[in-house]
Design goal:
This protein has 7 helices and 11 strands. Helix content is 28%, strand content 24%. The longest helix has 23 residues.
């Protein structure tokens, strides 16, 4: 019988590393624009430091305020993985702090997205491993379980599947299905190139603004003196 709520799945399908690395440096906003402004993790989950985030999702579903299953994930995740923790957004207890992040760095884990609270934020701000979290509290975690590893989770209002590609910067995090990655990569690079062109037009005072009035006119906007 399946023990729902206390399960660990060891094997997940990760996108090829050479595909993941192609997203390096692409603004999250550009990628999200190419996904119809969808698949962005909620703005309440904010970066703790300036380290950019990129890698496949290694998912954890924990009981709010408990980090037993997250500790297990620290020992199972592969180098380059991003640990995505669904703690249901609860901010009562922190579920991660400095010691756990130090261990994660030693194991080559590439980052964290915590839909819950963390602590030791003064130190974590200075570390070069990307960390996103919903909040901060000094109150520590319990270690009783239950929890699950490598199951679909909800993080910041977005469903994250094990192996999804995650890209994060100062604006936030976008979640990419690996099946969409190649086409999306092409679109996002084209979007970034178009924005650079617009920046040149702005610099030279040649940015075409006629589209604004066209939309207003189509919506029958009134201009009143």
């Amino acid at each position: 019988m399946s023990n729902v709520g206390l399960r660990i799945y060891n094997n997940i399908k990760r996108a090829p590393k050479d595909l993941i690395v192609e997203f390096k440096g692409l603004p999250v906003a550009n990628i999200a624009d190419c996904m119809n402004r969808m698949s962005c993790i909620d703005a309440g989950i904010r970066p703790i430091n300036d380290a950019p985030l990129l890698g496949p999702a290694f998912t954890i579903k924990s009981r709010p305020g408990d980090n037993l299953i997250l500790h297990k994930a620290l020992d199972l995740a592969q180098p380059g993985d991003i640990l995505v923790v669904d703690a249901q957004g609860d901010l009562t207890n922190s579920i991660m702090g400095e010691l756990m992040v130090l261990w994660a760095k030693k194991r080559g884990i590439a980052g964290f997205i915590i839909d819950g609270a963390i602590r030791d934020v003064g130190t974590l701000k200075k570390m070069d491993i990307p960390i996103y979290a919903a909040g901060v509290t000094p109150r520590g975690p319990y270690k009783d379980g239950p929890g699950e590893i490598n199951v679909p989770v909800c993080c910041g209002g977005v469903v994250v599947q094990p192996g999804d590609i995650l890209v994060g910067d100062e604006d936030g995090v976008v979640v990419i299905n690996p099946q969409d990655a190649l086409e999306l990569l092409t679109k996002a690079k084209a979007k970034a190139a178009a924005e650079h062109q617009t920046m040149e037009e702005i610099e030279n005072m040649k940015w075409d603004r006629t589209w604004v009035d066209k939309i207003l006119s189509a919506n029958k906007c009134e201009t009143i003196d």
